[in-house]
Design a protein that fits this description.
Helix content is 43%, strand content 21%. With 228 residues, it is an alpha/beta fold. Helix 1 crosses helix 5 (107-125), helix 6 (157-168) packs across helix 7 (176-184) and helix 6 packs across helix 8.
């Protein structure tokens, strides 16, 4: 059975192009011309990925995404926007989107990104309730212990919270604010250097060479991304 994509865009020409790209990648498509229509469709149907425009006629795509995540739906979401602003991409990531691509886009790049999102989500879903597996890393949810290639990693409570955040969202970009909120539970009163300190400590325990990290990648001006 083909994977399913929900396309949310109020521009018929863009919808037609997105539909063509998805079908050329063997994916089934459903179209929604507004935020309200998208939310209505999602009440009765499930999808493997959602392509979301930012500027919709009835509401912003960001608002739709917040409603989707507020309903507990973890379907991968990619923003497809004509606005090429860093704020938009960072804000989108902060509210639960998984990727961001701007118009005009290269169809082959969009297709590859969508299939990668679907593949990542399916790999995550296949983990058992007791074990989270991500590349060479394993997290035992019962004992709350981390392993790399079968060898236990000895992490502090803060390092554990940081690493678990990365393991649960491989490939996602995390800004400093997102890390503050998920690891420290706050958006304020945390020294900027604190994140760098814990990132370096974690690299020292999970990387083969922390001076040339392959798993926790720094994205200048954006934040960090975990590559399993």
């Amino acid at each position: 059975m083909a994977d399913k994509v929900l396309i949310v865009d109020d521009d018929p020409a863009i919808c037609k192009l997105l539909e063509k790209v998805m079908k050329s990648n063997g994916l089934e498509t459903t179209l929604a011309a507004s935020g309200a229509e998208a939310l209505s469709v999602l009440k009765n149907h499930t999808f493997d990925v959602i392509l979301m425009d930012v500027m919709l006629g009835d509401m912003e795509g960001f608002e739709v995404i917040q409603k989707i995540r507020g309903q507990g739906l973890n379907t991968p979401i990619m923003i497809v926007s004509g606005r090429n602003e860093d704020y938009d991409s960072l804000y989108g990531l902060s509210i639960g989107t998984d990727d961001y691509i701007t118009k005009p886009f290269r169809p082959v790049v969009l297709g590859a990104k969508v299939k990668a999102l679907i593949r990542r989500d399916k790999n995550f879903s296949q983990n058992t309730a007791d074990t989270l597996i991500c590349g060479p890393f394993t997290y035992d949810t019962t004992s709350m212990r981390f392993y790399k290639d079968g060898e236990e990693l000895i992490l502090s409570s803060r390092e554990s919270a940081l690493f678990l955040m990365f393991l649960r969202h491989p490939g996602q970009v995390f800004t400093k604010d997102m890390i503050y909120e998920q690891v420290w539970g706050t958006l304020i009163a945390v020294d900027d250097n604190a994140i760098m300190v814990y990132i370096n400590r974690l690299r020292g325990k999970i990387e083969d060479d922390k001076q040339n990290p392959k798993h926790i990648i720094t994205l200048r001006g954006l934040g960090y991304r975990f590559v399993p």
